[in-house]
Amino acid sequence: MRRTPTQHALRGVAWTGTRWVVVGDVGSILSSRDARRWAIAGAGPPVGLRAVAARGGVVSAGGAGGVVLASVNGGSWVAGDSGTTEDLWGGTTWRGQIVFSGQEATVVRSSDGLHWVAVATHPLSTGNPTSPRPFLWQLAARGRLLVAVGDFGAILRSSADGSLRAVASPTDEILRGVVASPKRFVAVGSSGVILYSSDGRTWRTARSPTTVDLRGVAYTGTRFVAVGDQSTVISSSDGRRWRVATTAMPCALLSVAHGAGRFVAVGGSGQLLISKDGRRWLPQPRPTTEDLYTVAHGPHGFVAAGALGTVLTSTDGRHWRRRPVPTRLNLHTAFWTGDEYLVGGDRGRLLASRDTRRWRLVRFPGFHSIRAFARAGSTLIAAGAGTIARRDHTGRWSLVAYGLGRFQTGVAAGRGRFVIVGHNGETLLSIDNGRTWQPTHSGVDVDFDTVIWTGTSFLATGEGIAATSTDGITWHAIGLPVRRSIRSLTTTSNTTVGVGDGDTIIRSLPGHAFVSVGGLAIARR
Description:
Layout lengths: L9 E6 L4 E5 L3 E5 L6 E5 L5 E7 L2 E6 L4 E4 L6 E2 L8 E7 L2 E6 L4 E4 L6 E2 L2 E2 L13 E7 L2 E6 L4 E4 L5 E3 L8 E6 L4 E5 L4 E4 L6 E3 L7 E6 L4 E5 L3 E5 L6 E4 L6 E7 L2 E6 L4 E4 L6 E2 L8 E7 L2 E6 L4 E4 L6 E2 L8 E6 L4 E5 L4 E4 L6 E3 L7 E7 L2 E6 L2 E5 L5 E3 L8 E7 L2 E6 L4 E4 L7 E3 L7 E6 L4 E5 L3 E4 L6 E3 L7 E6 L4 E5 L3 E5 L4 E4 L5 E3 L1
Parallel strand pairs: 13-17
Antiparallel strand pairs: 1-2, 2-3, 3-4, 5-6, 6-7, 7-8, 9-10, 10-11, 11-12, 14-15, 15-16, 16-17, 18-19, 19-20, 20-21, 22-23, 23-24, 24-25, 26-27, 27-28, 28-29, 30-31, 31-32, 32-33, 34-35, 35-36, 36-37, 38-39, 39-40, 40-41, 42-43, 43-44, 44-45, 46-47, 47-48, 48-49, 50-51, 51-52, 52-53, 53-54
């Protein structure tokens, strides 16, 4: 691992022929000639830069709101005109031009990185009235052939007239990465999906060795390498047969809940721990080998959920039973609303049960993953990737447009308001029951993973950081005893417990700071 002179998340990389250029959040641009020593290479506007590609000595970057920048040396940058205000995310070179893709099936091309023209795209409808055209996350080119992939399994292929037209896709998972080798294209996406094609027209599904979301794929010249959540890296020599190279999932604790007089923590490969005080933890027999992403408690006991539609229930946290549910998608969050249990997952899949035994699908307007719920009075808020949704007293869900194009990871309710946290230290506040949202300044520029209301303040944690706020507006950083990501928090009247990567468990008592417990992690305030 190489250190870089920025703390911001880095999202895209390109080789110019003489140097590497990397772009990322808050207008971050870095360059290196040897991929070992990195320097800040100018700065763009303070928006997320995602797309980057180079041709003939020109390198261009694109990002939020259609921002585009160009440079002839990767050191000084000039703003261009993309002709769009849609977010740009994917980038490649095709037929001697730089091509970017993004929101609403947008594709633009340029020969100089400054002046851009639109490429006509003809995707299949998503079926969602809020966003009928899919987000195209990435592009890949081979010769005169260009392929774009995106939401709902969207695959577009260049046609003779230069436009991109939809082809049949064997999946409706979100496809976030695609790459071309001399013999085939490979695309990867949510729930570990992998597709391959020799011509970009006919696609087949490869057997994947993982269920985590895959975020990108590259070709080294001899192997395909795909990367994803929980530090997962998989590889293949032919794009069809894959193996895991590394993953942090088996030693990640991803969720924690309290009920029935004990704490319960769950994680990778069905890992399960229980504790009466949050200090001494006992491993339990694993009720499944699937990754468990969430656990919650209600009057009928615990509900845990995870990969491939796994839902488990327990009255005591020790003895678990698998329940049949009408989905095979990954499920990321569970919640007791006061009336029923909800479980949310990929592609806006929402399940409900009043007794933990019988589960039904609930119609939900979002189409990305649901990551968290919170309730205040009769209002329920769901937050996730590109998603903020609100359920009022009528029981109907509606999308809030502000959530589109952002990655929300947690939501909490307290003091008559809702707070949402997300990537890049994002914090949002609503004081009108989730109808409208305004950004606040957390003072943090790395990803938050979760937020809770402790009874006196909001507490958010993420990649080795934590921040607290009594009003959701003014935030203060607090110290953690570990540098690993804290993925989940729960609180009782006298103890707050968090769990995270590397089997980390942290614990605090009122008036004390977080400390780590017994090789895992805890708090002393």
